[in-house]
Amino acid sequence: MLNIKAGSTSHSAYNLRSVYSDVEERHTLAVIVENEPGVLARVIGLFSGRGYNIESLTVAEIDHTGHMSRITLVTSGTPQVIEQIKAQLGRIVPVHEVHDLTVEGPTVERELALFKVRGEGDARVEALRLADIFRANVVDSTLESFVFEITGTPEKIDAFADLMRPLGLIELARTGVAALSRGPDSRV
Questions:
Q1: 100 by DSSP, 3-state: which?
Q2: Angle CA(104)–CA(77)–CA(93) in degrees, nearest 5?
Q3: Cα 50 versus chain centre, distance
Q4: Where are the alpha helices (DSSP H) in 9-142?
Q5: Integer Cα distance of 158 and 115 in angstroms
Q6: Which letter, b or e, does each residue of 1-40 get, where b requires 16 or more Cβ atoms within 10 Å of its Cβ?
Q7: Which part of the chain is the ACT domain (predicted)?
Q8: Across the chain, what does the average pLDDT equal?
Q9: How confident is the model at residue 187 (pLDDT cuts 50, 70, 90)?
Q10: Of 77, 91, 101, residue with least CA distance to 42
Q11: Any idea which fold 4-105 has?
Q12: How far is it, in rounded angstroms, from Cα 100 to Cα 53?
């Protein structure tokens, strides 16, 4: 039987169609790296040099004494492209671990966003009503605008943005996805 390594799962010759597919998939990768100058530039260079897109990128130090950082990135591609990205990331010297959270099991993904919405009258009231439904917090208010803070899945952030646009959305800032595997075990 032919086995092809794909994250922590293997694929048999009977289901190679899922590995060798032309369908683009969205994957969340967690990359553990040494916290040193130039590492992020090397990771980003890998993507830009090969024409891969990064949809979301977050970076933070996770171990102060060990000088380790976690890069969480969201990218899309065919299964072959995703496998190539993971393999190439693993070859970068300061990279210690590469995990494809999408294939390793259930995950929790969250994003923080700030929305500045200008509005008066009914539009202002509707923006406040929708913010309440989405559990967004008002973190700044003037007579002409609000700044809302919202946390949730990327899909929730997108839905809130779609509703705020016709009500006067004038500015939006997003942190990017932070993700962890579900359950008591640590995969990263």
A1: strand
A2: 65
A3: 20
A4: 16-19, 39-50, 79-90, 101-104, 121-133
A5: 11
A6: eeeeebbeeebeeeeeeebeeeeeeebbbbbbbebeeebe
A7: 28-103
A8: 89
A9: low
A10: 91
A11: Alpha-Beta Plaits (3.30.70)
A12: 16
- Asked if the domains 4-105 and 108-179 are classified in one and the same CATH topology, the answer is yes
Give the confidence band of 153 by pLDDT, cuts at 50, 70, 90.
very high
Nearest to 155 by CA among 110, 116, 115: 110
Q: List the domain boundaries for the chain.
A: 4-105, 108-179
> Any alpha helices (H) in the chain, and if so which ranges?
16-19, 39-50, 79-90, 101-104, 121-133, 154-164
At residue 144 the predicted structure's pLDDT band, cuts being 50, 70 and 90, is very high
Encoded amino acid at 155, one letter: E
Question: Domain 108-179 is of which CATH architecture?
Answer: 2-Layer Sandwich (3.30)
User: Environment class of residue 111 by beta-carbon count within 10 Å: exposed (0-12), middle (13-18) or buried (19+)?
Assistant: buried
Summarised one tens digit per residue, pLDDT across range 66-96 is 999 999 999 999 999 999 999 999 999 899 9
Which pTM was predicted?
0.79
